[in-house]
Amino acid sequence: MPLPSDTREFISRWRKKRDGYDMEKLEDYFDRFFTSYVLYNFLYELVTVQEGYKFDGDQEAAVKAVRKFLGARTLFNDEVLHRESMQLVDLIGKRTFYVRDSVWDEKRVAKLKTQDAEQWSKGLLEVVYKIRCNTFHGQKRFEEGQRQILNPCIGALERLNDRLIEKLDA
């Protein structure tokens, strides 16, 4: 069922806002990440309501709604998501960035290296969500090196948003 016009307009405004960042300055990376996540949040909440999913909190919805709606295999087979996840594996696996702590990070890297679509997609969405938490709640410092970790997250979020919009608007 096609999306209502006001929902399409809302999505269009956030995409336009997202595309307005030229990615030249550090703040563009943070702003594009925030903007992309706001749209992602809107879309997974829309999916949750539309599909009648029940989750225990935002974190669970952010990780489970998309996997359930799009399918873990669809996410796993997506070339863009795979490319972005491999950048995250490299950055987190080599300890260039810590997302949470070494044990949590190692478990997520292992998930992102697996051929199990369920575990892989869960790992990707958990990492993106945790980086969102770090960024929104001020645990991610505003320094040049953050471009490296934000860039693959932006790519993943934008691809997830596109896939969600495509299916929601079908």
Overall description:
Helices cover 76% and strands 0% of the residues. The chain has eight helices and no strands. 34% of the residues are buried. The model has no long low-confidence stretch (mean pLDDT 94).
Low-confidence stretches: none
Please tell me how large the radius of gyration is: 15 Å
Mean pLDDT: 94
Give the helix proportion (percent range). over 70%
Measured by DSSP, the beta-strand proportion falls in: under 5%
* Order of secondary-structure elements: HHHHHHHH
Explain the layout of strands and helices.
Layout: H1 5-19, H2 26-51, H3 58-70, H4 72-76, H5 79-93, H6 102-113, H7 117-136, H8 146-168
Helix pairs in contact: 1-2, 2-3, 2-8, 3-7, 5-6, 5-8, 6-7
Question: What's this entry about, in short?
Answer:
With 170 residues, this protein is an all-alpha fold. Helix content is 76%, strand content 0%. Helix 2 packs parallel to helix 8.
Features:
170 residues; globular; 0% strand; mainly alpha
